[in-house]
Each structure stands twice: as structure tokens, then as C-alpha cells.
Specification:
By secondary structure, the chain is an alpha+beta fold. It is built from 19 helices and twelve strands. The strands form four sheets. The protein has a five-stranded mixed beta sheet with strand order 1-2-8-5-3. The protein has a three-stranded antiparallel beta sheet with strand order 4-12-9. A hairpin with a 3-residue loop joins β10 and β11.
């Protein structure tokens, strides 16, 4: 069968052009595409041809089966302005080399050793709170996960930099839309205020990362953390060399940001959902009271018994996946579902849209942790749910993130309930990650007796 030239999609009209709809609300735009045009859609933004896939088989075809025909998409290529040639953005042999060097830090045994640090940090944060206190739980989770990633991955105390990092991250996320504009490469050459703000925010983050690297270089100490491994690692399978300071910076920046930004978002959305669903919250508390019957903090050994807690996390990641879309650039032509994607075509798949597809998740907008019983999982194809991507580029920190999210949720929920402040509207902000909007998630704390 000869592949059709182009999938269906919206017509390009000036006032209704996809660029305006996509920038105004990318989640709604992609959801509407899947609803109106089916599992493969074509649209054009500026000079770029986009092919949006919304079927598990097609997603697996691009991310796994024929991954070698694609490179990372435009969004992550543009992210090199911040992340450099780290694991998220690099390609080819450079990526494979960096992955080999970083992989030992994410070995199952090493990740388990981080559990006590996670629970202890969460316990200290929860101990500072007061009954009846109102706070932005997004900011609290960002500070908490920043402290954890600093300690577990870099054995450093970066909590003192939490405010500076938080402000710089917010600035970077706000400016991400500017980086995604057509012809952004040309815009970057102009002395625009947005460009200057982005450079300033990147410099703030760089100063923290390079300070940590410099302190470790000078001490020469092997602390057994990821940074030590990056500084000391030699590529035995390749050139036998180690990493330059710039390469270490790129990996450190990638893991530093990805290691706390996504987890903070996942927890923020989880608290929001629990505050709106008393029955699920009660089941969560019942499990925590049964497993942690003496009021102690949870440990890694408790995780197999915290099945409902894990189900809550999975359902939160379904509804509000921190990585809400994945892009790929076709480096050669490829056929998917009877349509030809040409070389240079941009393929887009969306966790947010796929995770809410009623074909695989009936009543898909409803928060229901029971979707994640072992029997329910077996009824769905693998790529109906892919919060950590898939294939050779699947997130290296998946096990770390799931363990951290579950332990932090358990540690805090055994002591606190959270109630959304009446009248407070929580909005979605799909930037590099799916964050709550500028107003955060305002909750009132209720201490559990």
C-alpha cells in the first residue's frame, strides 16, 4: 500500500492559525486535534510541519521500534540553551557515552540508599508547618525536592539557594514559549528584554552548579554520589577519557533541574487532587496508618506494602504528567499508520492527551486510583500511559522519581491533610513541564490526630 501524503488537520487561516491556538493553550489545542481529526494529525506552524500521533501503537513505533529514525524534537533542541549537551538533549554517540557514565548512579541499590534522605527531608519540612496554616504547596514542594536532589545527587546543601533557584526556574519556564517561536534563532540575535532575562536566569543557575563542581574538584573527595562519578568516570567502552567541566556542568544541570522540578510538580498536583477527593484521601490515610502503625517515617522497605499510595501517584501522573509532550525530528522519511512523515518532519506525542483518552481510561477526567490495580493495568496497551517516555531515551531517573514521590507523599500525608483554599483557582501552565500556574496551589493545613 502506498502511504498517503498527508494526514488530516486544521486549515491554515491567519486569525485561526495553529500558531495562535497552540500558544494560547497547547493542551486544549492538542486535545481538540485528537478529537476532531483522529490518531494522526497534520498541522503547520511557521516553517515547521507537525505530525501529532495519538495512538499507543504509533507512539511505540516512534519511541521504540524505529527510534533510530528520529532525533529529539525542536523543544529539547532549543532547551540546549539552558541544558547544554546533557542526557535530555544530546544525540548519537555523545548521548550513549554520557548515559554509560551516568547509569551507575541510578542502579537499584544506590537509589534505595537515597530513601532515608528523602524521608528525613520531608519529615523536617512537615515539622515546620502549623495547624491551620495556609501556604502555596507548589513552593513548598519545590524547596523540598531541591534539597533532596542537592543532597542525594551532589551531596551538597543547596536549600540555601532555593529562593534564587526558584526565581530563576520560574523565569526560564515563562520564557520557554519565546524560545519555541518560529524563527526564534533570529530573535535571539536581537537585544530583546526576554532574551536578556533568559540569559540572566541561566547565569544564576550556572553559578550554583559551577560552584558545586568547583568545590568538589578542589576537595578531590569521592563521596559516592553522582557528581563524584561524573568527575571520576572514564569511558572504558569508548575513548577512555573523562568529562570536561562543561560536560559535567551539562549533566549536572540536567539532573539538578529534572531531578526536582518534575517531582515537585507531580507532588503539587497530587496534593491538589487529594484535596478534592476525600474518599481517595481517606483510603490513603488508612493504608499509611496500617503500614506505619507506630507513627514512624516510611522507609524503602515499606514501599511494597504502600500499594494504594503508589496507585495515587500513578493516577496523579496520568492526569497531570509533568512531561506533558514528547517531540521527535524525523532524520529520514518514515511511514506511520499509512501516512508518510518526511525527513525534517516534527512528530509530537502528548502524555497529557493520551492519558485522558476515554478508549483506555473511561470517565478519563475523573481521579480514580483504582485504575492502577494489577488487573486494571493488564487491560491497557503499554503506551496508553507513558509518563517517563519510552525506548532508549526513557527517563534515566524514573525509579528515583517514583520512589521519591511515594516516600514524600507517605511521609507528609501521615501527618497532614490539605484543603484547597476556597475560591482559589488552580491553573495549568504547560511550559517545559506541566506546572501549576502563577498562583500555585494554595492549601490550608489540617493536622491529623
Amino acid at each position: 500500500m502506498v502511504a498517503a501524503a498527508r494526514p488530516p488537520g486544521p486549515r491554515k487561516r491567519f486569525l485561526g492559525s495553529p500558531i495562535f491556538a497552540f500558544r494560547r493553550d497547547p493542551l486544549e489545542f492538542l486535545t481538540r486535534l485528537a478529537r476532531d481529526y483522529g490518531d494522526i494529525t497534520y498541522f503547520k506552524i511557521g516553517p515547521n510541519d507537525f505530525y501529532f500521533l495519538n495512538h499507543p501503537d504509533y507512539i511505540r513505533d516512534v519511541l521504540v521500534t524505529h527510534h533510530d529514525k528520529f532525533h529529539k524534537g525542536r523543544a529539547l533542541q532549543r532547551s540546549k540553551r539552558l541544558l547544554g549537551e546533557g542526557l535530555l538533549t544530546s544525540e548519537g554517540e555523545h548521548y550513549r557515552r554520557q548515559r554509560r557514565l551516568a547509569q551507575p548512579a541510578f542502579h537499584r541499590g544506590r537509589i534505595a540508599s537515597y530513601g532515608s534522605v528523602m524521608s528525613a527531608c520531608a519529615g523536617r519540612a512537615a515539622a515546620r508547618w502549623r495547624d491551620g496554616q495556609t501556604l502555596d504547596i507548589t513552593g513548598e514542594m519545590t524547596r523540598l525536592t531541591l534539597a533532596i536532589v542537592g543532597k542525594t545527587l551532589f551531596d551538597a546543601d543547596v536549600e540555601r539557594d532555593a529562593r534564587e533557584v526558584g526565581e530563576a526556574l520560574t523565569e526560564v519556564m515563562e520564557l520557554f514559549g519565546y524560545l519555541m517561536l518560529p524563527y526564534a534563532e533570529l530573535l535571539e540575535k536581537l537585544p530583546l528584554p526576554a532574551r536578556r532575562r533568559f540569559q540572566r536566569a541561566r547565569a544564576q543557575l550556572d553559578s550554583i552548579i559551577y560552584r558545586i563542581i568547583d568545590e568538589r574538584r578542589r576537595s578531590g573527595e569521592d563521596r559516592g554520589d553522582l557528581l563524584s562519578m561524573l568527575l571520576l568516570a572514564e569511558d572504558a567502552e569508548g575513548d577512555g577519557e573523562g568529562m570536561s567541566n562543561e560536560q559535567v556542568r551539562d549533566e549536572a544541570m540536567t539532573l539538578f533541574l529534572a531531578g526536582h522540578e518534575t517531582t515537585a510538580n507531580a507532588l503539587s498536583w497530587t496534593w491538589y487532587l487529594l484535596s478534592q477527593h476525600a474518599e481517595a484521601e481517606a483510603k490513603l490515610h488508612a493504608e499509611l496508618d496500617a503500614v506505619l502503625e507506630d507513627g514512624r517515617a516510611p522507609t524503602v522497605e515499606d514501599l511494597p506494602r504502600l500499594s494504594y499510595t503508589e496507585m495515587v501517584v500513578s493516577e496523579s501522573l496520568r492526569l497531570y504528567p509533568p512531561a506533558w509532550a514528547v517531540g521527535r525530528l524525523a532524520i529520514t522519511e518514515h511511514e506511520v499508520g499509512g501516512y508518510l512523515i518526511p525527513k525534517g518532519g516534527l512528530v509530537l506525542v502528548s502524555q497529557f492527551v493520551m492519558h485522558r483518552d476515554p478508549r483506555y481510561f473511561p470517565d478519563s477526567a475523573t481521579f480514580d486510583p483504582e485504575r492502577w490495580t494489577p488487573a486494571a493495568r493488564e487491560t491497557r496497551p503499554p503506551f496508553a500511559y507513558f509518563p517517563f517516555g519510552g525506548g532508549p531515551r526513557r527517563c534515566i531517573g524514573e525509579s528515583f522519581a517514583l520512589m521519591e514521590t511515594t516516600l514524600l507523599l507517605a511521609t507528609i500525608a501521615r501527618r497532614w491533610r490539605m484543603r484547597l483554599v476556597p475560591g482559589h483557582r488552580v491553573e495549568m501552565s504547560p511550559r517545559i513541564t506541566l506546572r501549576p500556574g502563577k498562583q500555585g496551589v494554595l492549601v490550608t493545613l489540617e493536622q491529623r490526630r
